[in-house]
Specification:
Distance between the termini: 8 Å
Shape: globular
Strand order of the largest sheet: 2-1-3-4-5-6
Number of domains: 3
Order of helices and strands: EHEHEHEHEHEHHEHHHHHEEHEHEHEHHH
CATH topology of the largest domain: Rossmann fold
CATH architecture of the largest domain: 3-Layer(aba) Sandwich
Structural class: alpha/beta
CATH superfamily of the largest domain: Glycogen Phosphorylase B
Oligomer: single chain
Radius of gyration: 22 Å
Length: 387
């Protein structure tokens, strides 16, 4: 098998390449960064020349790129895309998603069903993976254990949402409605209401009122944009509330680009590197916290795979697929409210032996069932190929 890999700096690409090497797959890497994922004349002119230089069986990329899909279709070459982002953050994705040369793999079952219900039968579900062989080679020095050690650590964004900007141009009914919906969604785990609640009539009302205030505007709010803005706002609130509550009684370290003055008791550590720092954080922390972005309705985020693959103890919000693939209270610990998360963090900090046993079981599960060789074999099989 010979692959052309479109590379853009994805976190998972080195581990995927290592799996290809292990399986003796020949590949060539083409690196490029889009300024516009839907229109790039230089790329559209140059990439087909790479395709023509050899007899490739397929093009592979982490995440989905419409221009790569179009080039593959034009040259009748299979395009294999495996995404770790949700949402995909691609405008007008449906214009190219259904191309017959596409094989698109997403880690969220509900997201996959949504596309399949629209007729995109070339969209498949595939959970993410972790390279435990690489992570097993990382051992903490005393200095690293002291630097990265913490009772509780959280790696992730606090999120900035455009929701308040959107709401500034809404009438009072829409503002109150959105506030109420966000308050309800904050307390719901395993159920995402926003896509069902935001009807076309509701979106039309917002846009009509917006145009009445600014007749010369070309802005048009979409359901997708409003859903993401609400999800980001809710996730931000949940993360601030939970980190604030936990830090009032326990040591909490936050690894993020954004520092927040509300979190007075949290130790802000700045951002961290994926390959070097992050595994050490997960290994050194007594509890690793996961708070999933709300728009990710069912899937298991990459952070969870990395925590478990590092042998870390995971405390996560309830997530449908996490509960489906892992045994709660044996391999992972799931919470269903902010108060529940605090109680479980407090309990497991007092029971280190039980905590280490659960972390060990979680590690064994991802090593056996969520390794790159197994997941990529499934991907290639769906595309009519063999790893």
């Amino acid at each position: 098998m010979k692959l052309l890999i479109f590379e853009w700096g994805a976190y998972t690409q080195p581990d995927i390449n290592a799996c290809f090497d292990q399986c003796h797959i020949t590949y060539r890497i083409v690196s490029y960064h889009f300024s516009n994922k839907n229109e790039d004349l230089f790329f559209s002119h140059r990439f087909p020349k790479f395709l023509a230089e050899d007899a490739y069986d397929a093009v592979f990329s982490v995440n989905y790129f419409p221009l790569v899909a179009q080039c593959c279709y034009d040259h009748n070459i299979k395009y294999l895309s495996w995404s770790y982002d949700n949402p995909l953050n691609v405008q007008d994705i449906e214009a190219t998603l259904g191309l017959p040369t596409n094989y698109v793999f997403l880690f969220d079952k509900i997201q996959v069903k949504g596309y399949q219900d629209k007729g995109f039968q070339n969209v498949f579900h595939l959970p993410l993976a972790v390279n435990t062989d690489r992570l097993d080679q990382i051992t903490l020095t005393k200095a690293e254990a002291a630097l990265y050690g913490s009772e509780i650590s959280f790696v992730g964004k606090l999120y900035q949402s455009p929701l308040q900007e959107y709401m500034s141009a809404m009438d009072e009914y829409c503002k109150g409605y959105l506030d109420s919906v966000c308050d309800v969604q904050l307390k719901l785990y395993g159920c995402y209401l926003l896509d069902q609640i935001f009807t076309e009539d509701f979106i039309s009302r917002i846009n009509t009122h917006y145009r009445s205030l600014r007749p010369d505007t070309t802005f048009q709010l979409t359901r997708e944009a409003l859903s993401y803005a609400c999800a980001a706002q809710i996730t931000r609130k949940e993360r601030l509330l939970l980190l604030g509550l936990l830090s009032s009684h326990h040591q909490v370290k936050l690894y993020s680009r954004e520092e927040n003055q509300v979190l007075k008791n949290v130790q802000f550590m700045g951002s961290c590197g994926y390959l070097h720092q992050m595994p050490r954080i997960f290994k050194a922390s007594s509890i690793n916290l996961n708070i999933t972005l709300k728009i990710n309705q069912s899937g298991i985020p990459l952070r969870i795979m990395d925590i478990l693959g590092s042998g870390g103890f995971l405390l996560s919000n309830f997530q449908i697929e996490l509960a489906e693939y892992f045994q709660n209270e044996k391999e992972v610990i799931l919470y269903e409210s902010i108060e529940d998360a605090y109680a479980k963090a407090d309990f497991f900090l007092k029971h280190p032996d039980l905590r280490m046993e659960i972390a060990r079981h979680g590690y064994q599960k991802v090593r056996e069932q969520f390794n790159y060789k197994k997941q990529l074999a499934t991907l290639f099989q769906e595309a009519g190929m063999e790893l």
